């Protein structure tokens, strides 16, 4: 029993190649006795869990492949030997089992052993038909669809000594269908009716339906027997077998491509003719072309026919021609390069041509990479480079040739190829086309074998486009080189694809929980969901399942050649870049340049299936994390990183869209913001391993985290932008709906902005600043309410906290949280940002916008007690959403902010012009002033002193109102008295409608201290003589006394710009009465000088309001006429003017009477007399 492959993943280093090996079986018992060591594997087939191995000992080993353990689908099957068969043969040629051809459609197997073909039934290999001798069997139509069992049988090609035979294999004995005159066939590949075959010397293209042949190329350019290969198409029907097909002169040349009229591709041979000419009298192609539907055999344009013109005779230089791009020899001059100068003459010995290498027959290889073309190999010697040439079904070279490092021992083609000239639709399953060639070379006197891999569907780019299959898994691999082994290699494409499971794919792509060190969180882990686990297992198996038809054998081992999936191929490159070349290979020290190269290689690459879609996501995410780790490690060494490197890393993170919590978990300070739900952080398994290993190797607590250092410059700004990218994508259909992701995003983003903004100058945010970003963040919805509050409290950003409350608090608690935070700031608690400029005004505006009356009362009263003038506006604002009745507001203020009551009433009266509250305000002022006078003799003295000081002023003196305003005392009672005077002396009807008797009764005990108030109240009551007496003798304010007479006492303390309605101004007669009172009071001034000056001035300025006789009766006789001469002159002038005016008026009246009398006389004359009869 053979040993199965190990079930776990190989421990070989990461493989970046296009293919990798997976062991099928090992330690095969090739020898029946188990002693012979010279028995080799010659052929391998795998079908329907059956392994058939042909050996050089002319035996077929049949193994049954038992499926692996269902719990370990990536494990290899167990190979149990079912039989050891020795096919029958006539002569022991030493080749052993040459071919195993399985025909599942008819459940038969063809085994060629020592040139004897035997037929067996499948799967047990029981003999069914009589064997017969042949040299080769195969040629099953590659274009035939696999429809399962077929009663019509399968047509195969059998190579006999002198011909090919098409044989139908079915349940009955094999039946010959057609014979093709093509002997010595060693290999053939068939597509429909066209077959590319090879004998010992050359390749040929066969039209099996029309039985025509075109010679293509010699296998070896050194083969002397292949000099006549190529030429016109030949008829190879059995009836023509006795005739030797003649060739034109051009066909006689072994390599007509060396002629001067070569095809530019180097393949100028006439490949096919629409009309075949056999013999010397071959007819030419008609000039008019046939329609395509009349195609017969190999059609080519007439200009390419070899029968058109003979080619020049053979020359020595044609014996070893150069095959265009296929075999470029060093001695072939480039047509674009000038010829070197002729060499100097040398002795005859030196000028001799080196001997030509001895001819060694080469094994022909034919493969068909696509339905319309064949790949052939040509060369010179086994150790010299070989060339692969592509021909289509017309025999034309259809694409550039490819080169092998040595002539291949075997070739395989894999993949349908990508046509770069065609538009690739999303439904087309494009697959790269590869050629795998088993080659060898001699190294240190020892032959080493390897598998060379290159693309066949794209133009080669020299040796850089080639790669070697990693053979390190083979036990016989060279220690120095993992690409070569010391034992021969065999390869084959088996009959049907086999499913393999690569556990590496599932390990990398399957979502796993990231285990982060969280010592502070001891939450109980939930029980795993068994349903989800089973689904994950099924999903992983589906992703990890691959198909392959390629096998490789060496010694007694057989391996699958598996196309390396995109994820493992690219991940291997990432693993190589995970450590620097100088590192130990264990510690994670990413190498930036290879990582950027990987990302550049996959940029713009579109996935072709689900596995590639997930693979590209995984690679982008892992590469971006490695780039980010590289930034972290370099920042730890205090290196400021170039901006382009940070930009590349940021772009990689955005393209990868890795869970931001993974990024945060790698950083000090911010790793505490990672929040996990019950399922934790679910990411790809390969990334989980990487992150956990990085955290194990690096202690985040020891990493430098200075905000003004490399950590802030290299990391924080980049992470901030990445988190903003994630925040903008919230709610999109393609984004996770895990709330813990955006909880972590918001918390970390807020933390970063607080760290960065800590060093910004205090004050409001400016456009584009970090503070503006912080305000924008908290001004929008934030998912981490409690954490945000804790962070803002920690950083003492109370104003930002209030903005956060405004946007994110519940409606019922929003205003309360905002106001309480603002009160903390106004009470002096530290706010590091300093943004709450004019905070009291902000509070006042906010209170006018909310509807909660209790909050408005609480914080309005608090503000009123703190700033009465501003606070009382809240209770009197008509635009506020909460309105207060003044009585309720006054009661509230008296209880909570007594000092603001006066301000409230003043604001109502003076600010809002609500005059209905004048009496309340006057009463409030009176209480303050009278209380002060009752309790403070000093205040009484101050008032009395002001009168004496004012009276002592030399004229011209200001009015008493102006005097006390300019010399005010900074005390509440003084300001209240000024306001009281303003209200009492106001001429507004509403403000002047106060209760005068009641006020006067309260002021009378202090009539000496409150003289201006008594003057105003006397004027209100019409006691003008008393008011004027107080103005003259109590205050000594003569100017105000004169104003009192002119204005009637309506507003003696009005503002300079105050307006007095015309109706309030007394008539001239009333003014004359008031001036007579004033004259009498002036005449009683104690100071004789003041008496004379005031009286003279009054009479001179306002003499028109006085009667001369009355004035002369009042003026003392002892006064000089000079005192009132101005008055007398003005009075006499007035008398003269009045007398003259009276005379003029009298004359005018007489004239008017005379005119009226004349008018009456004239009218009477016109009317005439009137006679009246009496009686």
UniProtKB/TrEMBL annotation:
Residues 239-257 have a biased composition (Low complexity). The keyword Protein transport applies. GO terms for biological process: autophagy; endosomal vesicle fusion; protein transport. Keywords: Cytoplasm, Protein transport, Transport. One of its GO terms (cellular component) is membrane. Residues 38-457 form the CNH domain. PROSITE patterns: CNH (PS50219). Residues 237-355 are annotated as: Disordered. Residues 335-345 have a biased composition (Pro residues). Signal peptide: none annotated. PANTHER family: CNH DOMAIN CONTAINING (PTHR12894), TRANSFORMING GROWTH FACTOR-BETA RECEPTOR-ASSOCIATED PROTEIN 1 (PTHR12894:SF27). This is CNH domain-containing protein. It comes from Amniculicola lignicola CBS 123094. The lineage of its organism: Eukaryota, Fungi, Dikarya, Ascomycota, Pezizomycotina.
């Amino acid at each position: 029993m053979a040993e199965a492959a190990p079930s776990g993943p190989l421990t070989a280093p990461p493989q970046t190649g296009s293919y990798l090996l997976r062991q099928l079986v090992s330690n095969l018992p090739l020898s029946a006795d188990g002693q012979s060591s010279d028995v080799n594997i010659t052929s391998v087939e795998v079908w329907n869990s059956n392994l058939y191995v042909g050996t050089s000992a002319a035996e077929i080993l049949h193994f049954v492949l038992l499926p692996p353990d269902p719990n370990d689908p990536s494990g290899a099957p167990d190979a149990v030997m079912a039989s050891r068969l020795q096919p029958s043969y006539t002569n022991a040629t030493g080749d052993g089992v040459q071919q195993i051809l399985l025909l599942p459609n008819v459940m038969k197997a063809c085994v060629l052993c020592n040139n004897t073909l035997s037929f067996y039934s499948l799967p047990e290999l029981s003999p069914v038909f009589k064997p017969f001798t042949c040299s080769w069997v195969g040629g099953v139509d590659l274009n035939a669809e696999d429809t399962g069992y077929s009663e019509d049988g399968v047509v195969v090609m059998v190579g006999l000594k002198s011909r090919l035979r098409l044989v139908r294999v079915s349940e009955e004995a094999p039946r010959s269908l057609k014979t093709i005159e093509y002997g010595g066939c060693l290999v053939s590949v068939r597509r429909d009716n066209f077959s590319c075959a090879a004998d010992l010397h050359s390749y040929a293209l066969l039209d099996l339906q029309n039985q025509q042949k075109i010679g293509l190329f010699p296998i070896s350019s050194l083969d002397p027997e292949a000099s006549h290969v190529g030429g016109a198409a030949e008829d190879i029907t059995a009836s023509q077998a006795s005739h030797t097909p003649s060739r034109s002169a051009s066909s006689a040349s072994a390599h007509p491509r060396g002629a001067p009229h070569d095809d530019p591709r180097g393949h100028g041979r006439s490949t096919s003719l629409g009309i075949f000419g056999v013999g010397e009298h071959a007819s030419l192609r008609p000039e008019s072309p046939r329609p395509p539907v009349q195609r017969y055999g190999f059609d080519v344009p007439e200009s390419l026919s070899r029968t058109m013109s003979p080619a020049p005779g053979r020359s020595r230089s044609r014996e070893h021609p150069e095959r265009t791009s296929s075999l470029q020899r060093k001695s072939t001059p480039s047509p674009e390069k000038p010829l070197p100068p002729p060499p100097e003459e040398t002795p005859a010995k030196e000028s001799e041509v080196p001997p030509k290498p001895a001819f060694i027959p080469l094994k022909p290889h034919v493969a068909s990479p696509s339905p319309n073309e064949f790949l052939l190999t040509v060369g010179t010697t086994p150790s010299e480079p070989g060339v692969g040439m592509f021909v289509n079904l017309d025999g034309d070279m259809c694409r550039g040739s490819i080169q092998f490092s040595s002539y291949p021992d075997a070739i395989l083609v894999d993949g349908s190829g990508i046509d770069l000239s065609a538009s690739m639709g999303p439904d087309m399953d494009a697959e790269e086309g590869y050629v795998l060639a088993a080659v060898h070379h001699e190294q240190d006197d020892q032959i080493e074998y390897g598998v060379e891999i290159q693309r066949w569907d794209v133009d080669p780019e020299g040796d850089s486009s080639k790669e070697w299959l990693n053979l390190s898994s083979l036990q016989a691999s060279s220690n120095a080189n993992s690409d070569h082994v010391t034992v021969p290699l065999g390869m084959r494409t088996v009959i049907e694809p086999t499913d393999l499971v690569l556990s590496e794919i599932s390990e990398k792509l399957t979502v796993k929980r990231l285990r982060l060190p969280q010592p502070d969180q001891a939450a109980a882990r939930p029980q795993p969901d068994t349903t989800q686990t089973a689904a994950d297992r099924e999903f992983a198996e589906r992703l990890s399942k691959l198909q392959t038809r390629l096998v490789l054998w060496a010694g007694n081992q057989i391996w699958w050649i598996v196309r390396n999936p995109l994820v493992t191929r690219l991940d291997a490159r990432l693993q190589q870049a995970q450590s620097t070349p100088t590192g130990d290979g264990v510690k994670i020290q990413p190498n930036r340049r290879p990582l950027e190269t990987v990302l550049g290689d996959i940029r713009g690459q579109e996935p072709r299936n689900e596995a590639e879609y997930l693979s590209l996501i995984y690679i982008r995410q892992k590469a971006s994390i490695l780039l980010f780790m590289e930034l972290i490690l370099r920042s730890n060494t205090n290196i400021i990183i170039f901006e382009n490197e940070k930009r590349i890393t940021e772009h990689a993170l955005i393209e990868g869209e890795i869970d931001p919590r993974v990024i945060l978990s790698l950083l000090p300070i911010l790793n505490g913001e990672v929040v996990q739900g019950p399922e934790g952080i679910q990411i790809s398994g390969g990334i989980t391993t990487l992150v956990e290993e990085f955290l194990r190797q690096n202690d985040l607590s020891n990493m430098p985290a200075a905000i003004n250092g490399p950590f802030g410059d290299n990391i924080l700004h980049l992470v901030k932008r990445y988190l903003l990218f994630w925040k903008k994508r919230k709610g999109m259909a393609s984004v996770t709906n895990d709330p813990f992701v955006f909880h972590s995003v918001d918390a970390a983003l807020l933390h970063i902005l607080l760290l960065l903004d800590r060093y910004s100058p205090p004050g409001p945010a400016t456009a584009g600043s970090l503070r503006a970003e912080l305000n924008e963040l908290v001004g929008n919805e934030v998912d981490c309410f409690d954490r945000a509050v804790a962070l803002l409290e920690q950083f003492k950003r109370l104003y930002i906290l209030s903005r956060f409350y405004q946007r994110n608090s519940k409606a019922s608690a929003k205003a309360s949280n905002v106001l309480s935070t603002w009160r903390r700031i106004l009470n002096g608690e530290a706010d590091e940002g300093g943004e709450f400029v004019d905070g009291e005004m902000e509070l006042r505006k906010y209170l006018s916008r909310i509807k909660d009356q209790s909050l408005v009362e609480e914080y309005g009263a608090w503000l009123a007690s703190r700033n009465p003038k501003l606070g009382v506006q809240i209770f009197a604002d008509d635009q506020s959403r909460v309105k207060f009745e003044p009585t309720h507001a006054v009661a509230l203020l008296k209880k909570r902010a007594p000092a603001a009551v006066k301000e409230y009433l003043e604001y109502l009266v003076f600010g809002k012009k609500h005059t209905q509250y004048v009496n309340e305000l006057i009463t409030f002022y009176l209480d303050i002033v009278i209380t002060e006078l009752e309790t403070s003799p000093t205040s009484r003295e101050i008032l009395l002193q002001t009168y004496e000081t004012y009276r002592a002023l030399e004229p011209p003196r200001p009015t008493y109102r102006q005097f006390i305003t300019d010399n005010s005392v900074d005390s509440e009672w003084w300001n209240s008295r000024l306001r009281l005077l303003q209200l009492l002396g106001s001429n507004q009807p509403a403000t002047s409608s106060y209760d005068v008797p009641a006020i006067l009764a309260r002021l009378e005990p202090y009539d000496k201290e409150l003289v201006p108030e008594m003057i105003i109240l006397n004027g209100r009551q019409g006691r003008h003589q008393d008011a004027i007496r107080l103005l003259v003798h109590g205050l000594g304010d003569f100017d105000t006394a004169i104003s009192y007479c002119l204005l009637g006492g309506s507003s003696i303390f009005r503002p300079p710009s105050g307006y007095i309605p015309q109706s309030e101004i007394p008539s001239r007669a009333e003014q004359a009465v008031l001036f007579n009172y004033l004259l009498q009071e002036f005449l009683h001034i104690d100071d004789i000088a003041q008496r004379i000056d005031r009286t003279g001035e009054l009479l001179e300025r306002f003499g028109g309001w006085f009667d001369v006789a009355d004035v002369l009766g009042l003026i003392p006789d002892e006064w000089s006429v000079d005192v009132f001469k101005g008055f007398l002159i003005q009075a006499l002038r007035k008398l003269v003017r009045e007398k003259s005016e009276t005379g003029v008026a009298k004359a005018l009246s007489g004239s008017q009477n005379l005119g009226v009398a004349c008018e009456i006389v004239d009218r009477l004359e016109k009317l005439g007399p009137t006679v009246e009869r009496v009686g």
